[in-house]
Design goal:
Oligomer: heterodimer
Structural class of chain B: alpha/beta
Structural class of chain A: mainly alpha
Low-confidence stretches of chain B: 1-28
Number of strands of chain A: 2
Radius of gyration of chain A: 19 Å
Shape of chain A: elongated
Radius of gyration of chain B: 23 Å
Strand content of chain A: under 5%
Number of helices of chain B: 16
Strand order of the largest sheet of chain B: 7-4-3-11-22-21
Largest sheet of chain A: 2 strands, antiparallel
Largest interface: A-B, 23 and 32 residues
Largest sheet of chain B: 6 strands, mixed
Strand content of chain B: 15-25%
């Protein structure tokens, strides 16, 4: 019986790691989050994370500082922009499991280096 | 540019197949239901759907009139709706800046301009109500901390300069301060909250709404529907439907997915459609306005729109085929949009016309640097270089500019009778800045009928539907065929304030 449990655990463990492999994840997040989906998926695994989920680790003010632009273009800072200030939820432009376009690209031709295209 | 397609029409017309279209065309069906036996999940005093100018102004005014528990629900993840991305242009008659600039204006003059642009079918009583309270609404934005350029602008179709513009040249210069003010006053704001339908009392009165929480726009993710009771009523400030391609094509089949749109992605009109189901009177739905100042070289409203709105009074618009002017550059929006759409090449394909401005004049607007920097506009040192770049015949173009400059001198435009007041001493001279023009779907004149108390009228009884109010672009008939530029913000704010007052008096 004990043996069976171990075998079962190995098989299930294999399945879990297989499905985890199938999900795209940022390399730098793998180290911190590992395979514990619930770290981000605070509304349940089948739901999108809440707007607060990313803010467990990331600070909006720090992000705004990192992406600050020159005085002339200061409102093109995605983390502190003209239209929504610092209020824009992360998932509007960032997806952990799929690539997204910056919201600005709806109307503007700004270049953001980390976005392809 | 991101595209959203709630109803699947775009996939269908692009030929990806009807099956794909049908599969996507299954948003949860919103329906209103009776309150008998409804289990209330929440109860609020004032319930506002939508967080643009109208919703935010209503939130502030409700608190000022004594409401203790005001809630704004917003479908998108961010607040401000379409109001956060427009030009931030605010028309009002009899303002302090008009007095300073010696401009003689009145409620009557503004209403007359709007009726002319509306081709006679605008709702005069609503226009008069809005114009009469426009200065009050402007004051609300100032009290909340909005800042404006220190000059007035004269927009197309206005007989005098009466338009303020936020110092950031964007509606966000108003929505951001209003949102902060709402929160300071204790208005509760909820994002990712999608309106799903009304809940009705025994007499067909609106007593609450169904609201989907944790909603993710354009994603296949359901969230959870809750029943919210609204003690003083429900204000629908949900905006227009310019992004709902299926519905706008039902009104005007020429407005396909190939025609651009300046609106925020959430402008899809479900709130309006639900009010029609409830019995609201549909007015003027087919009158959908395109912005004649938009550029085909960027998505949405972008940078060019404000650049050209500012520059039209002292610029010339040129048809690239002929090298000649083809319209009064400050005619109302419909006149100009129609004229631009007629600019085509020998095969009949669209050939966007250009707007030529002297750099010395264009650079007065902060967007000029942005337009050049982001390659959505160009600067030329000579007329030859300009003509070559756009393939315009040089001789007619030269003659046209000379002719136009003589109108600048005399103050009389013999070609198109343009009002040359703001063009005084502004000759078209090198170096030039140039943008391309092509209309984009911008504003839905149509919507539900309201009275001057912002009550929504029932199509069978002609009486207000008790408990239901609407303000802003979701309302129809106010502007008629074509809305004048800078007349939406005062309308949204005044009608939002009006709705709050009506709710608090009811």
């Amino acid at each position: 019986m004990k043996m069976l449990n171990i075998v079962l655990a190995l098989v299930l463990g294999g399945l879990v790691s297989l499905s985890a492999h199938a999900v795209e994840q940022r390399p730098w997040h793998k180290e911190v989050i590992g395979k514990d989906c619930k770290v981000c998926h605070d509304n349940g695994i089948k739901q999108f994370p809440s707007d607060q989920a990313c803010l467990q680790c990331h600070d909006v003010d720090d992000l705004a500082k990192k992406t600050a632009r020159s005085e002339e273009d200061k409102w093109q800072n995605p983390h502190n922009n003209l239209h929504y200030g610092k209020d824009l939820p992360c998932q509007e432009c960032h997806g952990e499991h799929k690539s997204k376009q910056p919201l600005c690209s709806n109307c503007h031709t700004f270049k953001f280096d980390k976005y392809k295209k | 540019m991101r595209k959203y397609d709630l109803l699947g029409r775009r996939n269908f017309i692009k030929g990806l197949g009807a099956a794909t279209g049908v599969a996507i065309a299954a948003p949860a069906m919103a329906l209103s239901e009776k309150a008998d036996g409804v289990k209330w999940d929440k109860e609020v005093e004032v319930l506002i759907v939508g967080s643009g100018f109208a919703g935010l102004a209503a939130g502030i005014e409700a608190i000022r009139k004594g409401a203790k528990d005001v809630h704004i629900f917003e479908k998108m993840s961010y607040f401000g709706g379409n109001s956060a991305i427009n030009g931030g242009l605010f028309a009002a008659p009899g303002t302090p800046m008009q007095k300073k600039e010696g401009i003689d204006d009145s409620v009557e003059k503004m209403v007359a301009d709007q009726i002319a642009s509306g081709r006679g079918i605008a709702d005069e009583s609503l226009l008069r109500h809005v114009a009469s309270h426009a200065v009050e609404a402007l004051q609300m934005t100032l009290d909340a901390g909005a800042e404006f350029h220190p000059y007035l602008q004269q927009l197309g179709g206005h007989s005098v300069a009466r338009t303020y513009q936020t110092s950031v040249s964007c509606g966000a210069g108003i929505t951001q301060p209003l949102l902060k003010e709402c929160r300071r006053l204790g208005v509760k704001t909820h994002n990712r909250a999608k309106f799903e339908g009304f809940i009705l009392g025994g007499k067909g009165n609106v007593v609450g709404v169904k609201m989907r929480e944790n909603y993710h726009f354009a994603e296949d993710q359901p969230g959870k529907v809750v029943n919210i009771r609204a003690l003083r009523g429900v204000l629908m400030a949900t905006g227009g439907f310019a992004q709902n391609i299926d519905f706008r094509m039902a009104q005007d089949p020429t407005l396909t997915s190939e025609v651009g749109c300046t609106n925020a992605p959430g402008a899809t009109g479900e709130g309006m459609l639900e009010m029609f189901r409830l019995g609201a009177v549909p007015v003027h739905l087919a009158h959908i306005q395109s912005g004649p100042w938009a550029s085909p070289d960027e998505g949405g409203f972008g940078y060019v729109s404000n650049y050209s709105i500012f520059n039209f009074p002292h610029s010339i618009a040129i048809n690239c085929m002929t090298g000649k002017r083809f319209m009064d550059e400050i005619a109302d929006r419909k006149t100009r949009a129609d004229a631009e759409l007629a600019c085509r090449d020998a095969k009949g394909e669209p050939l966007p016309p250009i707007l030529i401005t002297s750099f010395k004049d264009s650079k007065q607007h902060p967007n000029t640097a942005k337009v050049l920097k982001y390659n959505v506009g160009w600067k030329f040192d000579t007329l030859e270089a300009l003509a070559k770049h756009f393939g315009i015949p040089i001789e007619p173009l030269k003659a046209q500019i000379e002719e136009y400059n003589s109108y600048v001198k005399t103050g009389v435009d013999k070609q198109f009778n343009k009002n040359m007041t703001k063009a005084k001493d502004k000759y078209i001279e090198a170096p030039f800045t140039v943008v391309r023009l092509w209309p984009k779907v911008h504003y839905c004149q149509g919507g539900v009928q309201v009275n001057t108390k912002a009550q929504v009228k029932d199509s069978f009884t002609g009486q207000p539907i008790p408990g239901l109010y609407a303000a802003g672009e979701v309302c129809g008939g106010i502007h008629g065929v074509s809305r004048l530029g800078s007349c939406s913000i005062p309308e949204c704010m005044v009608m939002g304030m009006t709705a709050a007052r009506s709710m608090m008096q009811a």
